[in-house]
Each structure stands twice: as structure tokens, then as C-alpha cells.
Amino acid sequence: MSKSVLILGALSDVGTALARRFAQSGHSVVVAARQTEAAQNLAADIAIRYGTAAKAVYFDALAYDSHADFWAQLSPQPDIVIAVFGYLGNQEEAARNFAEAQRIIHTNYTGAVSILNIAAQSMEQAKSGCIVGISSVAGERGRQSNYIYGSAKAAFTAYLSGLRNRLAHSGVHVLTVKPGFIATKMTEHLNLPPLLTASPQQVAEDIFRAVQRRRNVIYTLWMWRWIMLIIKLIPEGIFKRLKM
Amino acid sequence: MKTTLANWGNYPPVATTATSFADTETLRHTFETANELIIRGNGRCYGDSSLSDRCVVSSLKFDKIVAFDTQNGILTCQAGVTLADVLDVIVPKGWFLPVTPGTKFITVGGAVASDVHGKNHHVEGSFGQHVLWMDVFTGRGEIVRCSPAEHADLFAATCGGMGLTGAILTVCFRLKKIQTAYIRQRQVKARNLQEIIALFEQYKHATYSMAWIDCLKSGDGFGRSIMMSGEHAAADQLAGVPADKHLQLPPKMKLTVPFHFPEFVLNNLSVRAFNFLYYHKNYRRVMDSTVPYDGFFYPLDAIHHWNRMYGRSGFVQYQFVLPPAASERGLTDILQRIGKKGWGSFLAVLKLFGKQESLISFPMEGYTLALDFPVRKGLFEFLDELDRVVLDYGGRLYLTKDARMKPEVFKAGYPRLQEFLDIVRTYNPEGKFASLQSKRLLAGL
To answer: In this complex, do B88 and A188 lie within 8 Å of one another by their Cβ atoms?
Structure first.
């Protein structure tokens, strides 16, 4: 059955790959982003390539006050909501300058809570739906290289876990996605190990399948589950001395 | 952070800063922060046209198909869309690319920047001739819409201009109507060079034509070849394919060359053996068949990474065009020199171009030959020798396949070069858009 998918932060590389992957399977897609023209181009692209309904809407994760209206004007209400937006930021800058820290926390956490609270409310009443949150393996254990981003993602992971617990009773599916490295514009300037780095298309494929199978938590690429297990098992006394 | 990049010939490799854009704001940011940059599509040009040791900006994420007028066959898309993606969208709706080169893994932006030609150049011209308009992010940081009527100078200098006017953004071009996804192909064997040239004359009116030449054969069989001509099959010419499948292709297997072949695999003997088999697989002189368009236009696309056959040091492709009057003598001269060296290439493709009035595009009326040469000691000296022969006969070389020609050779081959440079200076005054190739060829001009 074809469903309607809302992608929040659709112009990110993963967002675009997700929009295309769901459309390819016949889902109608609503792409939400701040840059209207680019979002409209993406919607046109999807409609032309896959012959499915696609439209673009304006969405700003940090404009919390607008989120209720944003949700209300969606018609039909989406069956699947995917929160892809995020902001890696600059750890050193964030350690010095609270404005950067705030932007990281608010984009990755507060903004997500604001809009997903509304989606959750609506899906709980309808007793159906699916919420997908793109968190990060960075939220598994704080490391000196990105602990502001990591802590916001840790909070988001905890939020999704609680949401899953609550919505399970009304049949709403909540999926937590923990990507490792992804080759995107967010990481373009980093030197990432190729074997551990997924393409946005691989990540989108994993998410698509996890939605079909109603999985709770997935890692993508899969080996990150084991890498993070090892990292979590390192005793704190040793861990704090590592440069990670 | 520096990455090493090379184009399809794997020569030259260059350490550079690689970045990309999915929207014009990101491109503007890169443009403003880099002191020199060049746009790169899918990296299927052979040499250094889309390389820079400063900043290489990939257009592959700028890949949205923005509009498709299925009534009139007009497609508007961003420069990073590949021809393969375009075909997937248009063929099922009964449309085809107006012009396509021998691989579909190039971007639309690359097709414009190289002003690519196909097997139909003699009747339908080059890609740029089917472009209705395009937006270019110029070296002045402005987005300018150009067409044959509007900012015509920019339009002319961008078609075949190798990205030197700026970044090609959105391109609107005309498609051609087809009834089926199949080609009625005819293969004709020619015993030698005279015969193949006569065949091109005879098949001048065929929509598509090209020939594969065995460049190692000497004596009576010098220049033996197989000509392939083709027409889009009409619906009533497709026996055995149900009507609802006329615009669909049967699924195919894909082969991959898994690693770089060691250098000894491609030697004189193996090329001779390949050419012998290829020539003799056609057991009759004339063979007609109806084939899916993919195999007709893109035989090598079925083998992923075929460039790895040439080993790690890579290869260069050498493609030149000679004016009609000098073609037979010139081709004989060049093929004899190659034969004497014993440096035959797997792939020697001969094709007849029709008339074209171009500012900086490669095609002009006459015969064009494309050859592959693995990079080895003495090759560049030998190619310099061939360059002189090409110029003596009034020909020129294809920038998209070049990695090594000298500035004098380029200058002598393109009579309107100065006019082109004047336009480039207007739109890219500080030379911010520059490639290894442009710096090599335009030094001092």
C-alpha cells in the first residue's frame, strides 16, 4: 500500500536519498526544508523520476512556534515521519562559544522534540503511523572530539526510546537510526575510513527496510553496532585518557 | 584535506581539495572561498579537463530533473544528472536523447561542456545544438541564463568550453521521439580503409553510423573494419516483442573489471587476437539485427571499470578529426605510423562528422578517429609526432580526451580560439574557473 512520507530536512544528502527511496516504492512524499526553491526542485525531480505525488513545504526546525501550524496544514497527514535534520557544528567552537553549542543542541534535540511531539500526538490518536528519528552513534558515549553534538544525539536517542515505549500501546512504530560515518556534505572535509563509511543511498536503503520490518533500533552500517559495543565497554578510567 | 582524483584514463592523477554542491548557495560559498576551481561531473572525460590541483567541485549532487514536457519532448534538469538517469525517465515515455556519446555515465553538464557528439553527428549535430537554454554561474559570480538568442556569446563559449566560463547549472534541451527502445542495426565488414570510407559515403543518410577499425593489420587488409549503422525501430518493425514492452529493455547482466590488470595483459598479441576475433565474429559481410538501444550505443558501459584493463599507469585516448579532403591520406598516414610502432589500441573508432560551425567545440566536417594508448615510455613523444601529422592535414584534437597536447597544437587546431578567450575573459575575468588542462594549454595566451 502506498503511504505518505514526510521528510523533515529533505535537502540533506540522506534526506534526499530517503525521499527518492520511498518514492521509488510508490510512496507519496512531502519534502520539508528551509530552502524553498531547492525543495521544489527535489519534489519535481521525484514526481518526474518515479511518477509519484511529491510536494515541497517550508520547515524550520528551530522555529518551534510554527510547528503546530506546519503540522496542521499537512494534508493528508503523513503515515511516516522521518526527522533527518541535524547539525554537526564545530566542537572546538562550541566549547568556547555557547551560541554554537546552543545551535547544535537545538537543531539536533529541541527542534526534533518540538515537531515529533506534535506528530506523536496526532499518530497516537489515529492509532497508526511511523516515526523515524535519525540519531547517531556519537550519542552512545561522549568523546572529546564531538561531545556537544554527541550529547544532543544521546538525548534524542533517549527521547525516541521513551516515545517508542509510549506509542507501542497505540500501535505506532518508532524507529531509532544510529548511523556511523556517512559520506555527505556534512562530513566532506573529514578523512573518513572508506570501509566504515556508508553512502546516503545505503543508509536510505537500511532505513526503508527497517520501516517495512518495524524494527526498533538499527545501526547503519551494521558493523557500527559492534564498534560501539566495544567503545561502550572500555572502562571509564581508561576511556578518559584516550584521544577519541 | 587533499584527495587524489583522476578521470577515466587514470592519467594524470592529482592531489586536490574535492568538494560538491547540491544548491547554488553552496556553490557560491565555494566560489567565494576558493581562489581557483573547476566543476567536475562524473569524471568520464579522459584526461585533465575537469581536474585542478586547487579545488575540484563535483556537480553530482546537483542532480534534480526539474521539468519534463512529455508532449513536446523538452527536458529541464540540473547539470549533475547523468544521461543514464535521463534515459531511465524519458525512454518509457517514448523519447530519446538527441545526441549521446558512447557512454551514458556522463552528466548533462559534461555533455554541454564537452559539446559531445554521437553516432548521428553527420545528421543531427552535437549536443549543444539541441540545448534551448541554460543557466551558467559565471566567473563573475552571477547566474546568467543564455541561449542561442540570449547572451549568445556565453552560450557559444559554454558549449564545448570545458567549464571555463563558469559552472553550468540548469540545462533545458530537446529530446527526440521514438516508438521503441530498439535499434535496427546493420553491420557491414570492410576489407580495408578505402572500402570503409566508401561505406560511410554509402550510409551517409543512416541516422547512426560508426566503424570499428583494426589498426594493426597491414598489407591488403590495412584498415579493415566493421561499420555499424542504425535506425530507431518503429513499432511495426518489432516482431516478437509485446506492444506494452516496446519502450522497455530486457534486463541485462553487468560485468565488472575487478582490479587494474597487470601491464603485460594488454600486449601486441592480445590486441591482435581480440581484433581478429572481433572482425571474424561477423561471419557474413552484411548482418542485420534488431537490438536493445543500450547495447548499440553503450557496449562498453556493460563492463564496469573497463578502464582498469589498462593497468595502474592509465591510458590516454587520442581523438582527432581531419577535414574530408585530407581524411583518407591522413588516416592512412597515422594508421601506418601506429602499425609501425605496433601500438595498436583495442578500440579504434572511426566516424564521419557532418558540417558544424563551432566556436570551440571539437566537431567539424570530416573523419574522426579515437584510439586508446596505455601510458608507457615514449608514448608522449610518439603522440607529439602524430599531433604534427594531424595539424599538417588541417585537423585538431578533442579536449575531452586530451591529457598531454602542447599549447601550439591546441592553438593551431582551433582557429576561433582568440574569440573564445575574449568571451571567457568577459565572463570569467579573474580566471577563477580553471583546470589543469586550461592552465597547460592557455599558458601565455
So the answer is: no
